[in-house]
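tool=predict chain=A
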Amino acid sequence: MADTHTALGTPTERREGREKVTGTARYAAEHPVPGRVHAWPVTAAIACGAVRAIDTTDALRLPGVLAVLTHENAPRLADADDPTLDVLQNSRVPHRGWPIALVVAETLEAARAGAGAVRVEYDAQDHDVTLTDSHPGAYVPEKANGGYPGHRDRGEPEDAFAAAAVRVDAAYRVPPLHNHPMEPHAATAHWDDNRLVVYDSSQGTTAVRATLAALFELPEEQVTVVSEHVGGGFGSKGTARPHVVLAAMAARRTGRPVTVALPRRSLPALVGHRAPTLHRVRLGADDQGSLSALLHEVTTHTSRIKEFVEQAAVPARVMYASPHSRTTHRVVPLDVPSPSWMRAPGEAPGMFALESAMDELAVALGMDPVELRVANEPGTEPDSGKPFSSRHLVECLREGARRFGWAHRDPRPGPRSAGPLLVGQGMAAAVYPVLIQPSTATAQALPDGSFTVRVNAADIGTGARTVLAQVAADALGVPLDRVRTEIGNSDLPSASLAGGSSGTASWGWAVHDACTRLRADLAEHPGPLPEPGLTASADTAGSADADSDYARHAFGAHFAEVAVDTVTGEVRVRRLLGVYAAGHILNARTARSQFIGGMTMGLGMALTEGSTMDAAFGDFTEADLAAYHVPARADVPAVEAHWIDEDDPHLNPMGSKGIGEIGIVGTAAALGNAVHHATGVRCRELPLTPDRVLAGLPPFMEA
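tool=predict ok
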């Protein structure tokens, strides 16, 4: 086979794009399985206690209702490794919104009506859902999410901070945030004798298959989970969630295929959320801006049934040189739904606090915020002492400043306009770890000259099909149009889930190895191929997950311009610009889409998105898209994403880093810093809603 120009790096269109825009792409609730029925959950109306009695008589009398599953009659499950999946197994209510029944009916409408007819009596107990930094139940966990140590000290941080010439000591607050993917969580399940087939909205069907097999005590080969198309997840579909377990239980009980599509209002309670985080950041520096002390302390909540600790202090272990450091997490178990992953867990809230504090330090020093960050660039990773595999943060800062026109910015914060609109610019840095997991893949050469690559990857809107075909074409040395990819089915070679910006690096490594071996086999194969073709396989266990001698991270710089209305308090974004150093960019088109998507989500985090926990009812007040405000098209200006292509040999065969999450990491801080630059007002609690902005403005600036 003759070598062709590389397929990697080219702005190739998504292969499934036409299916999606024409409506032929099928999602989990859209598979027309013969005899399919629908189910609707009944969720708990108390925040703590137990179900005393449940009356399903009226529901079962309604036309079309087939069954009502409760803890009294639902199929028994094996003990769940994940307690959030222990549904309909007992009468306990660990939080408001917990599933206590499931109504199965011929139609979705009948199932919903049946759910409304179920009568429940409770034994309610006192509940506590309020997070405070002085909560008596707070403790320091051994590990935070991702396996990071809950607490780290270097040097003598308290003494160094007390002795510093310039100090910042500030508290920041990030509220609960919700994932809210476009496609709500849904699953269609059916049983064929003792074989379970599920169409699920999932970021990883290999993991879902293993979970379902364990819960229903089946060999894994008797479970198939399909997620061919997924309408977003942002972490909330990373592992099995209650909807898929409920669908399988209902299908087993009724003998019919069952679809469970969670109502959007149920998502915050049932599929995870970004836990609120309370931050205290202390920075000590000399008169030239060199950090001598960096302390980042975080308090967050978890549920009473599952510990999940948002690792928000971890980025401070990576970003800046400081001889004395403390990074610690405290967590409070409350009667709340279990938090879970949301795009850039830990990094997004943690960098809002750290990068806001760095801006406050720059103001206190009278120093340019870009130059302050450059002045504190570490030679090695501060926490581990490892050399960086590549670190081009300074280049991102310089390039972003050049493209944004940062040099023309008036450095003085505060109002400089006689009109109602105050304009300001802000910036922040970003970091996200390189995560790679073992995966398997096969590559097949067919007699007609085409190739098929099989790997159980998940495409959650990122363009995974397309990029993996590019990896394969590049490794095989063939034109891209001769490569076909099969993904999203647990019967394919097992692969890691789409999460932690690890998908392409993990799956692509396995695909690259399989295609490299196939190319070598083809070079030695005489004559035409046999009818079944030739197949090569790869398993990256032991290599992809091997310890590295290098600290591996992606870095970026965000720049923002805002206009603040002093009459209404409204903040309007005028410009957003990001520059990233994320290894070798494999597809310029899909990469730009991912960067811009992350920045847009960061805009929402900064200005519109936020949830509150109602202390009396123990429920999220903003549970649906009518109350939880994600950015609309009119909120998003022309967003620019650029990158510095890195040559990093310490990553994977493609030289790529993850790009799906770093775009959100610094955006909120850049926008908050821009608001301060425009108004002179420092808002330390997100989101920056008009009431909060107006409350900080001096009286002479208000209407």
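The mean pLDDT is 96. The CA atoms of residues 593 and 664 lie 13 Å apart.
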